[in-house]
Specification:
Order of helices and strands: EEHHEEEEEEHHHH
Number of domains: 2
CATH class of the largest domain: Alpha Beta
Strand order of the largest sheet: 1-2-8-7-6-5-4-3
CATH topology of the largest domain: Alpha-D-Glucose-1,6-Bisphosphate, Chain A, domain 4
Number of helices: 6
Radius of gyration: 20 Å
Strand content: 25-35%
Distance between the termini: 46 Å
CATH superfamily of the largest domain: START domain
Oligomer: single chain
Number of strands: 8
Largest sheet: 8 strands, antiparallel
Length: 208
């Protein structure tokens, strides 16, 4: 997996992360326009509420655990579709906007597009940002990593309706901790089934 990312210090005006993806540019853009799913893929965000207010305006609240001391957030933002991506503009936030840019991949093989997420903090003065450093979202590179993993799985499995249903109706609303627990339980179940099948095979070899 090719994952390239950069995250400047919070005192700077911008931070960004780039990933290569297996989706073509049109498919990737359509994927990114599902804004709620896009944010929920971020494992550093614990959602309390999500509202769609119409005219591409949204509001969501929860807790961000990307800082050493987690902080609560309540964000209102507007989404604008761009020719080469999506722009998310925030109201009354230390973060001014998030821009998602989609372009050709820098390498070939399985990668069909490149996605760059840029967080812009230029809407506030440096002094104002210093006072709100405890609310800086430090999850950008982690979000990009999980987004790439999700897109690889999406490319591989999304043609199967049960998988799409599970990811939208079960996995997506889960809290990050719930997803981790479910993942571990699934592997434990697979291991137990394998042991049962091994036991059955040994029985038949011994007594059949």
């Amino acid at each position: 997996m090719n994952d390239q990312s950069t995250a400047p210090a919070a005192m700077e005006d911008m931070a960004w992360a780039s990933i290569e993806t297996p989706l073509d540019k049109d498919s990737l853009k359509a994927f990114c326009l599902d804004i709620e799913r896009l944010f929920r893929i971020n494992p550093m965000l614990i959602f309390n509420d999500w509202q769609t207010n119409g005219d591409n305006q949204y509001r969501f609240s929860g807790q961000n655990i990307s800082q050493e001391e987690p902080f609560d957030f309540d964000l209102t933002f507007t989404v604008t579709e761009l020719p080469d991506g999506v722009e998310i503009s925030y109201e009354n936030s230390i973060k001014t906007r998030t821009t998602i840019k989609i372009e050709d991949p820098t390498s070939g093989g399985e990668w069909k597009s490149k996605l760059t997420i840029t967080d812009d903090y230029s809407g506030m003065s440096e002094l104002e940002r210093e006072e709100l450093l405890h609310t800086v979202d430090r999850s950008l590179t982690v979000w990009a990593k999980y987004l790439q993993q999700y897109l690889i799985a999406w490319q591989r499995w999304s043609r199967f309706a049960p998988w799409r249903w599970y990811m939208r109706k079960v996995w997506q609303p889960m809290k990050p901790s719930g997803r981790r627990i479910t993942y571990m339980l699934l592997w434990i179940t697979v291991f137990e089934i394998a042991l049962i099948m091994l036991g059955v095979a040994i029985y038949y070899l011994e007594y059949a």
